[in-house]
Design goal:
Length: 413
């Protein structure tokens, strides 16, 4: 898994006007989202000093996904994806604005934070499913792999810039202004989506039935298709274990930085940015890989190797008490985390049938968000009882062993 880079494939993909426009607006919005994400974690820790509360706040954001994300996949296959995305972005802007006002006026409480996280959780499936499904419609199928990798790369650039900016803002002017910055950032993605030149949404135009007719049947059909597909049916269990066991560590960083290392908000920003640096390396590695069948045929194996290494480096991070050793370990953990997430998404995007893509992506999104929700609450509660080290080390070990076992069983078959 040598990290040799050739950026010609990335340049060719970014030459597409639609994709470049979407990527620019999405990038600004993602920076704002990371500014708010770090500020939410720190504000919750400052108000409660409880790992369980950190987990509960994370779960409040992701819990609505259990009920909504599967149906939003059906909606993305039926309705105008641009309109769905815009509606979700506008609601998210309102949420960030309310959060900023409550914090700046001194009325914010842990319970209100939970309520605000539930609010964003209600629209996040609409935003993410529609945005993920829009990407393949912006460029040829053979460039979808690079597009997913570039989108992941932009996400992780935001993961570096956002936490660093958030840390400065929290220390200098307070968390309330971080939420205000996020509210403004949503306007950039709204503007970019409005300027996209998209083909007509054929599935909806072709349906000569009421818009909500057969919704439940389509929903069940999406799950049946996904979990009987030769490739998708083994990818999703591996990604579920990762999302429960290793990915939620990001939502516990405030407690880890302050309680385990005594570094406060500065340590939180360093860890979050280190994870972003590692993720950038992972994203660059994936973005320069060849597209189409030549590159896609190796994605399954790459996904499993990345997941195993992600779990292994989480074990190392959990067991060290030296801050400047923990930082590179966490950066490497972040590199393999983004490689696992992006390659799993690429496998799904490239293997799913066109009329099933919205539903398969929404199932992937449901599994990852539900895993994060319960994983953060479980790990946070265990950390309250036993400290951070033992639960996180066990989570990393479970991630690595499960990925290896599922891959070995598939190889035997």
């Amino acid at each position: 898994m040598a990290l040799a880079f050739d950026f010609s494939a990335m340049r060719a993909t970014l030459a597409n006007r639609n994709f470049a426009l979407f990527t620019a607006g999405n990038g600004v919005s993602l920076v704002g989202s990371w500014v708010q994400r770090v500020a939410i974690g720190w504000l919750t820790w400052e108000l409660t000093h409880s790992p369980a509360w950190l987990g509960a706040v994370s779960m409040a954001e992701f819990l609505p996904v259990i009920f909504l994300a599967p149906l939003t996949g059906v909606m993305a296959d039926r309705f105008d994806r641009r309109r769905i995305t815009l509606i979700g972005q506008i609601v998210a802007t309102v949420q960030a604005t309310v959060l900023a006002v409550l914090t700046l006026t001194g009325h914010i409480t842990p319970v209100l934070i939970l309520m605000m996280q539930i609010m964003i959780g209600l629209v996040a499936p609409l935003i993410q499913t529609a945005r993920l499904v829009i990407v393949p419609s912006l460029l040829p199928r053979e460039q979808v792999g690079q597009a997913v990798a570039i989108t992941s790369l932009v996400f992780n650039l935001a993961r570096i810039i956002g936490p660093a900016l958030s840390g400065l803002m929290i220390a200098g002017i307070g968390a309330g202004w971080a939420f205000a910055v996020n509210a403004v950032s949503y306007l950039f993605v709204v503007a970019s989506v409005m300027k996209l030149t998209l083909p007509p949404h054929q599935p909806r135009a072709a349906m000569q039935v009421p818009l909500l007719h057969g919704l439940w049947s389509d929903f069940l059909g999406g799950w049946r298709y996904t979990f009987t597909h030769a490739t998708l049916r083994w990818v999703l269990p591996v990604i579920f274990v990762s999302s429960v066991m290793s990915w939620p560590v990001s939502d516990l960083l405030a407690g880890i930085a302050d309680h385990e290392f005594g570094r406060g908000v500065t340590g939180l920003a360093i860890f979050a940015s280190a994870q972003g640096v590692g993720a950038i390396l992972g994203g660059l590695f994936l973005a320069q890989r060849p597209g189409g069948k030549e590159g896609g045929k190796e994605m399954g194996a790459l996904f499993v190797r990345a997941t195993i290494l992600n779990g292994a480096f989480l074990v190392g991070f959990a067991l060290t008490d030296i801050f400047w050793l923990a930082v590179p370990l966490y950066a490497t953990f972040g590199m393999f985390m983004v490689m696992g997430g992006a390659t799993s998404q690429t496998v799904i995007q490239t293997h799913a049938a066109e009329d099933m893509r919205g539903r398969t992506i929404s199932i992937w999104y449901t599994i990852t968000r539900v895993g994060l929700a319960f994983g953060a609450l479980i790990l946070g509660t265990l950390a309250d009882a036993f400290g951070f080290a033992v639960p996180l080390a066990a989570a990393g070990l479970i991630t690595a062993v499960t990925a290896a076992a599922i891959w070995h069983r598939r190889a035997d078959r």
